[in-house]
Give the backbone structure.
Amino acid sequence: MNAFLFGWNPAKFKWADIDADIEKLKNTGKLTDNWSVASHKSIKPGDRAYIVRLGQEPRGIFASGVISSEPYLALRNGRHYHRINIDLDVLLNPDKERILTFDILKTGNLAEQTWAPQASGISIRPQLVDELEGVWLNFLDRHPYFGAMS
């Protein structure tokens, strides 16, 4: 399985309705969002996606999902960008909940990956994909909301 890392910096883009999106995902099990993608030639539906908060603390992974579209061109601020749709399966509010922080992501083998990418939608090193998924699932299993569900 291929996996990609998407960056979100709240100083550059406000996610004003994150709490409503979290509730929608919890209540319906579905939430699709679109993101710009740098690796538009290699990404495809079914690939794994992780969204990392950049800029202000806490920094780290706070959402995951599955790529649900082929890359497409979208116009924003007079420029064309490649974008993809992600069907989110986890969404946490970094201002209110624990997230998988850089201090964990920068240990062991995972330290080989750049966790603060300059572009959104970069490829996660193939040899790290399974380990990252395991660390993410282990983190969620201990998370107050998700751990209580299992």
Residues 3-147 form a domain with the ph1033 like fold fold (CATH 3.10.590).
